[in-house]
Each structure stands twice: as structure tokens, then as C-alpha cells.
């Protein structure tokens, strides 16, 4: 019984690690694909005021408010 466990334990561990790594790799590829489309942001045309500078974009350059786009200006990345 012990000799069977010595054989199956490394085999099972290897199988589980391979499955886990392939799943994690797939998740990373999907998240990179989504952020790759939105990484280029444009310059804001116009001069935003102080209230506009308080409306910051998320780290992935997405605006929560509807009909706003993330653009860069002298006060950082803002939703305008």
C-alpha cells in the first residue's frame, strides 16, 4: 500500500499543478486582452477647471460615469 502511495502522490501533485497553472495563465491572458484595448488615452482638448480635475479615471482608464471618457491633462488622468 505504501509503495502505491509513493508512486501516485507525485503524479497527482504534478497533474494538479499543471491544471492550476494552465487556468491561471488563461485568466492572465484574458485580463491583458481587456486592458490592452484601453491603454491608449488621448489628451483632453480644452482647459478643465478644478471640479473636472477631481473626476479621476480608474487605474484601467475607465470612467464610471456614463458618456465620459478618460483623457490626460495637467492635473492627471480625468473623466471628461
TrEMBL record:
<keyword id="KW-0732">Signal</keyword>
<feature type="signal peptide">
    <location>
        <begin position="1"/>
        <end position="25"/>
    </location>
</feature>
<protein>
    <submittedName>
        <fullName>WAP four-disulfide core domain 11</fullName>
    </submittedName>
</protein>
Amino acid at each position: 500500500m505504501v509503495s502505491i502511495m509513493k508512486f501516485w502522490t507525485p503524479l497527482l501533485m504534478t497533474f494538479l499543478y499543471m491544471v492550476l497553472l494552465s487556468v491561471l495563465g488563461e485568466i492572465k491572458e484574458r485580463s491583458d486582452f481587456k486592458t490592452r484595448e484601453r491603454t491608449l488615452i488621448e489628451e483632453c482638448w480644452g482647459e478643465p477647471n478644478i471640479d473636472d480635475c477631481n473626476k479621476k479615471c480608474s487605474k484601467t482608464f475607465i470612467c464610471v460615469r456614463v458618456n465620459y471618457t478618460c483623457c490626460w491633462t495637467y492635473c492627471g488622468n480625468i473623466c471628461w
